[in-house]
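During the reporting period the student researcher (J.K.) took over the structure-prediction task from the postdoctoral fellow and processed the backlog of single-chain submissions. One of the processed entries is reproduced below for the supervisory committee.
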Amino acid sequence: MHFDVAIAGYGPVGALAALSLANAGLHVLVLERSTDPTDLPRAVGLDGETLRAFQRLGLGEEVSSLCQPPRDPNEIRFVNSRREALFGLDIPVVGPNGWCDLLFFDQPELEAALRRIVATNDRIDVRLGQEVIAISQDADGVCVRSTATDAANETEHRAAFAIGCDGASSFVRQAIGVGWQSLGYDQDWLVVDITQGPDADLPLATMQICDPARLSSYICVKDPNRRWEFQLLDGESREEMRSPGRIRELLDPWTAAENYAIRRSAVYQFHAATADAWRVGRIFLAGDAAHQTPPFLGQGLNAGFRDAVNLGWKIPLVLARVCGEALLESYAAERDAHARALVDRAVSIGKLMETLAARDAGRPDPHPPESTKINVGGPIVPPMRGGILIPEQSQGGQRVGELLRQPSVRDGDGMEQRLDEFLGSGFCLVGRKSEDLELSAEAGAVFARLGGRSIALADLQIVEGEWDELFDSHPTAVVRPDRYIFGVVDEAWNLDRLLIELGSNLCLVD
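J.K. obtained the following structure tokens:
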């Protein structure tokens, strides 16, 4: 059987990629060497953009229900060696994406749920216990060969495109000859996950602990679980740090040993890197196969979900012959720069922790001030600055390249929903009023070719949240399927010009 897309790897990123592509009408093959979802609590946090992506697939509430409800207070603190707050960030229950911007989950539970959802989709063919052993391509498509992990038989699969979602040690990345670009942060940390008992009495705030004796993080993940991350010091071995005695010694200042059971302990190298290339011909890399980041922002998995979303709307347009294959060149242009900016922010947090710890000990700052700058009150995720958008607007201080705010709204029939429910799943025009959405015949033909939808804010009422601030200055915005803003109407760009430029950017096929 010939598939539209073959995906190697069935973690959360592979699952979302499969669901996004299938939702667009494609037939997807997923190959995974394991037979069961992970039983390890790896990633722990989802952000509002990720929940919004699942919402567009009709899964927002279902995925949200797997997460820890926001706590009161819902906050992240930087603290000193005595756990006294230096500064912090309050996470509102509803953020600009219409969901809380930090929700904790348990990865084994999420993976199991996603597999149940995928199993109900007849456009997705999942082959478990199949290890990818070779991948090649020609002008017409990709050939993936796999072998059953419990037998010697080999199977060949054909697809128009393939995505490697097979983790940091990605076979696909190695098979297509792509290496790593280190971004200059490689440190060993011990990660300890516990299940707490009723008398543990552990804090409810997530903390970055800037202790000169040892940097650490405490993450108040989904109840009844908790996580610590401890930086290894010079001379400490992995085996020593994982010993029960050392783990107990590290956790004793927090709670007594009888108050918890250890779920997992492992030493990881916190690594900052991106792939040399995100695409080779018809083969793409996504998730940990394409980028790795220190965990200080909790954005590793969320960045992988953005990869899946990006490919999830572009590949279908190419296979439907609405857009030319040149559109797919924008995947690396958008995701590499975005992931690098996110990694840089995570590294800055690590350096800031080192600086605050040095100050606590009365030592000189170990890093120049410009390398530790973070906007604690600003958005965690940087804007997109390249790819399918109007570059002069994105660089001019406007909201282009950022996500459109998503309030909850009510239409004239009394229907209350989050804004994206009214916008649909494709491109959309959002204007203050209906007159702001009028198009010339040429621009209208572009928008019709994309199957876009228009909506006037005057026809809706706010139920919760607020309209995007861009509408204070601009009558209309052109919004992409992933809800990033392509461009806004201003003195230089009227709506017709924006739509014609959009068609050009997308390599629209006549």
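The committee noted the following: The first helix runs from residue 12 to 23.
J.K. will present the remaining backlog at the next meeting.
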